[in-house]
Amino acid sequence: MINSKQRNKVFVVIAAYNEEKSIAKVVESLFDKGYKNIVVVNDGSKDKTYSIINKLNVYALHHPINRGQGAALKTGIDFAHIQGAEYIVTFDADGQHNPDDIDTMLHTISKTKVDICLGSRFLRKNDIKNVPISKRILLKGSALVVFFYSGILLSDAHNGLRLMNRKVAQKIELGDGFEHASDFITEIRKYKLKYVEVPVTILYTDYSMQKGQSIFNSFKILFRMTVRKILDL
Amino acid sequence: MQGIVYLMVIIILYLMAKTVYNLKLDKISFRRFCFWFLIWTIALISVTTPIVGFISDFLGVGRAADLAVYLSVLLLFFFIFKLFVSVEENRKITTLLIRQIALNQAKGKKKNK
User: Fold this and answer.
1) What architecture is the A4-231 domain classified under in CATH?
2) Residue B112's pLDDT is what?
3) B103 touches chain A (CB under 8 A)
4) Is residue B83 part of a domain?
5) CB contact under 8 A, A58 and B85
6) Which residue in the set B88, B95, B109 is minimally distant from A67, CB to CB?
7) By residue range, what is the domain housing residue B53?
């Protein structure tokens, strides 16, 4: 079992863009679970997200201009690294992640000595049932694209819940936008990092579905990844 | 050779030199250099040898005026390339700056402790 001493070694990084409706609840759920080191990066939100996180007992970071989820996560990861975090978790701000899964990841990383645990919603039958059909097709397609670029075939290549050690936090470079999810995988390949997929539950609500990626956006990400790969940017 | 061909050769040689210069200044990676140098080499061969005549005959495009279109396409490619690189570089610099500002302002900022 994971105790509070182990949880204190963990920094949870949340990138928030226009999340005034959910961010306080998400932070509270992490506090309730015993995670005290929470870093929220407000990524140039146009709503009240920044004023809300400033009232919470968290490390509040602020991008004056929106730079994308990847850039915000990298800011949070760098900050957590500077603060001496032993483990760093990336956690979504829209409330679709379950804080209980961090314990599972923490247990896994301690036991298996891997560098990074990647959440997957496709490892347990009950979790798969929760995934809408359109999402399943999109996510499986994305996993194939990531495999094409990185050589690593994952069951869920675009899951925002990850737990990494300091070594990973120090090395990885991420793209600015949503392509950062694929960047994690290409960086794993580049630095020959040890990884494992851990089953996690994604809570699909109307809100999180609305905030999620559309098919059009997915094609934009794919185009951007391809251009970056070809032009070596 | 017609005047337009000389002009095209000069422009292509300039673009080749510019590509080499950018590599020397580390503005482009070696992979990108190879890609663009190959493009310009193909363009040069096409303009200076009869191969383009064979190709245009084969494709049914034989008018000299079409060369102007080809030239424009080449220039557009070059400008798009320059623009894309410039936008990407600026985007990266902006992100780096914003992230640095966020990190500097966040030091010891944990609230209500």
Assistant:
1) Alpha-Beta Complex (3.90)
2) 44
3) yes
4) no
5) no
6) B95
7) 3-75
